[in-house]
Specification:
28 helices; two-stranded antiparallel ribbon; single chain; 6-stranded mixed beta sheet; alpha/beta
Length: about 600
């Protein structure tokens, strides 16, 4: 069993080299955690020998490492890397201040602290080595004193920004301290911050320690809880190889989720769980997993291994689906191009949670059949526009349909090709059947042609997206490159072609005002523009000249009309309705 005991941070840091492995998450502390540590240290009574418990530290003894002829005991940090990193940064900030003082004792104190707990100058050995790209930034930027050295390399990732933020925060903590206060703070950190340190012999043994310590007030992310439980199962099964597999897969999972957004950890777990089980109401995946994979389950370790492999694969797919611009590189170029466009469009409509488990399962199941994946993506995007946007259904509408098919498709990955294709077509047919029942082509035409104020029906960004899709279609017909969507988001606005507040409106007869009221908000009277304030409420005759100069094709086309009133708006509304029917098409063979 692991050796353990309560030891001060001085003993922890001086014990040797601590390496953070790649399967651990990158540096994550931000201002609230940094403030808590600073306040805890400030609250320690200088006149008493009170201690502050700093949590649990779990390390694996890797034996001795030699560097420049000097031997160091080396540990792999399994838990506690956030605290070790933050304490090291604070100590370095204290070192900077002491080393800058004229007092000789202060300089010796700084030099000794650096050598004993941070960097051995005799060999250049760091006492703490972070994982991945964080180590280079920690070495090149954070553990540098001069500002010109610190800014020599910009923070490019979230963890690098947090490392730099921690350095800047701790610098502010010590900025006004005198020598005596700096020495007292150093003593508090090294002698009165204590941790329960477990030194384990294997990764699997660490899983058991986690299960013992998890319920002692530490707030763990759900992904961490899942990993810890799986490591516990590996320990109970005496399977070190499985524990190493879990660590290897977790390195990929953390890399993929951090490349998207840290908040995607929980959604990865949930989407993956839905695709595996169809249980879309479950939010505590850790608890659900414990009820499924537990001691006594037949072929438990084999099932744990399969779950970990599956979750890792899902993390790659979710990363791809969340950032489709460079995705689907293993697909034929023509299909990949359309997939990128369609998945990006699903994101732009703003409702993704319903579709993601199905898209995730389809990407995995149809790896060798990207044409089938495209069919599923097209059906999801069509549903997103017609059901969620035009019909304004709640975001969880028809959730069961998509999630139940996700489970069926994920189970197909090793099925015969004929069965895979048959099940895919059944899933797509079921989606289109619901669309046809709820919002068929006639309903699309009616809603877009007759809605008197489309901005009451759709959000501003949704109208932007609809008009952008129209722009893309017109450009494709003319073999022009459309404006990039990012430019539309950043600078594009929606322009009322017939102004909302025309000149001399107050002098109009009531009948003319009524015609204006019934037409000014229709989709046919809206266009994208990059210069809305400039055009504002000008007459169409003035706008028309400006439209001719536009870099947007749908604006240039407006200049073909010599006047712009109710008839032109009606015609264009009907045209946009026909475009929408063709763009978000219901296949003829759909039920």
């Amino acid at each position: 069993m692991a050796e353990h005991g309560v030891i001060p941070m001085a003993e922890v840091l001086n014990a040797g080299i601590h390496r953070v492995p790649d399967y651990q998450r990158n540096y994550a502390w931000e201002t609230p955690q940094l403030r808590d540590l600073a306040e805890d240290l400030q609250g320690l009574d200088s006149s008493a020998r009170s201690e502050h418990f700093f949590g649990t530290l779990i390390v694996k003894d890797l034996g001795n490492t030699t560097n420049v002829g000097k031997s160091y005991r080396t540990f792999e940090v399994i838990d506690g890397q956030q605290r070790l990193t933050t304490v090291s940064i604070l100590l370095y900030c204290i070192y900077e201040r002491l080393a800058a003082l004229e007092d000789e004792l202060a300089k010796r104190t700084a030099s000794n602290m650096l050598k004993e707990y941070l960097i051995d100058p005799d060999t250049g050995t760091h006492r703490l080595i972070l994982n991945g790209g964080d180590q280079a930034f920690y070495h090149d930027v954070v553990l540098r004193s001069a500002d010109e050295e610190m800014v020599g390399r910009r923070a490019e990732t979230e963890s690098e920004r947090r490392l730099l933020g921690a350095k800047q925060y701790m610098r502010r903590v010590v900025a006004t301290m005198e020598q005596a206060d700096l020495t007292k703070l150093m003593d508090k950190v090294l002698s009165r911050l204590s941790a329960v340190r477990y030194v384990v012999r294997s990764d699997a043994e660490a899983g058991l320690i986690f299960e013992v310590t998890n319920d002692r007030g530490r707030a763990l992310a759900q992904l961490d809880k899942v990993k810890n439980y799986l490591m516990y199962l590996a320990y109970k099964g005496d399977d070190q190889e499985l524990a190493e597999l879990i660590n290897a897969r977790w390195a990929s999972i953390l890399k993929n989720t951090s490349a998207i957004d840290a908040s995607r950890e929980d959604t990865l777990l949930k989407y993956h769980w839905i695709a595996r089980t169809g249980q879309y109401r479950e939010s505590d995946i850790h608890r659900a997993l414990k009820s499924t994979l537990h001691l006594g389950v037949e072929r438990l370790l084999e099932k744990v291994s399969e779950y970990v492999d599956s979750l890792s694969e899902a993390s790659f797919v979710l990363r791809e689906l969340d950032a489709p611009e460079q995705a689907f590189e293993d697909c034929p170029a023509d299909i990949a191009t359309v997939l990128r466009v369609r998945v990006a469009a699903i994101h732009r409509w703003g409702v993704t949670a319903t579709f993601m488990p199905l898209l995730l399962a389809s990407r995995i199941a149809f790896r060798a059949r990207p044409d089938l994946l495209l069919e599923v993506v097209n059906a999801c995007e069509c549903f997103s526009f017609r059901a969620y946007k035009l019909k304004n259904h709640r975001a969880d509408y028809d959730q069961y349909l998509f999630h139940s098919w996700a489970t069926k498709l994920l189970q197909l990955r090793k099925a015969p090709d004929a069965q895979i294709e048959k099940t895919c077509r059944e899933a797509v047919a079921a989606i289109y059947s619901d669309i046809r029942f709820d919002c068929d082509d006639d309903e699309v035409r009616r809603m877009l042609a007759q809605e008197t104020n489309i901005l009451w029906k759709l959000e501003n960004y949704e109208v932007k997206h609809l008009l952008y899709e129209l722009e893309v279609s017109r450009c494709q017909t003319a073999r022009e490159a459309p404006a990039d969507w990012s430019a539309i988001v950043a600078k594009g606005t929606i322009e009322h072609i017939w102004p909302q507040h025309p000149k001399n409106y107050d002098d109009w007869p009531d009948s003319a005002k009524e015609v204006h009221r019934r037409n000014v908000g229709r989709i046919g009277n809206l266009t994208l523009t990059f210069w809305n304030p400039e055009l504002s409420n000008r007459d169409f005759s003035e706008k028309r000249r400006k439209y001719l100069e536009s870099n947007l094709r749908i604006q240039r086309e407006l200049a073909d009309s010599k006047r712009w009133k109710a008839r032109q708006i009606t015609n264009r509304s009907e045209q946009i309705g026909e475009f929408a029917v063709a763009r978000w098409v219901l296949p003829r063979n759909a039920p």
